[in-house]
Amino acid sequence: MRQETTFSTLTLEVRSELINHAIDGIKDRAEGMQGCDLHNTLFNEDYYLIGRYEAEQWLNKVGIFHAIDVIKEYEEMNFGEVTTDLSEAERVCNMFVYIVGEELLGELETLRDLWDNELSEDNVNSIIDELERL
Question: N or C: which end of the chain has fewer CB within 10 A?
Fold first, then answer.
């Protein structure tokens, strides 16, 4: 039985938004990159949203306290402490998207199979096709 992820609990609108963000980034930058570097490139090199107001509005779609809970659990489990400034909407938004992006890409069988490989154009197209089917 498949374990429920934070990504799978989001609204269809938010899931579609994040999938489209990933697809756009993959189209622009993924070819020639190692599969294991894709998450960092898509969800860590640039902010998902810039600006407090925009971040607050986006967090209202997912629930600010839900996002904070997800971040706290993730960081405590992975780092032993919470390091994200939870009083800053932009940081909360972008860290939440980072975590959900990790879950999203973790669902892709194609990417799991290519984790240690350089991504070819065919690989990139396969990853995009798989994202579009989610």
Answer: N
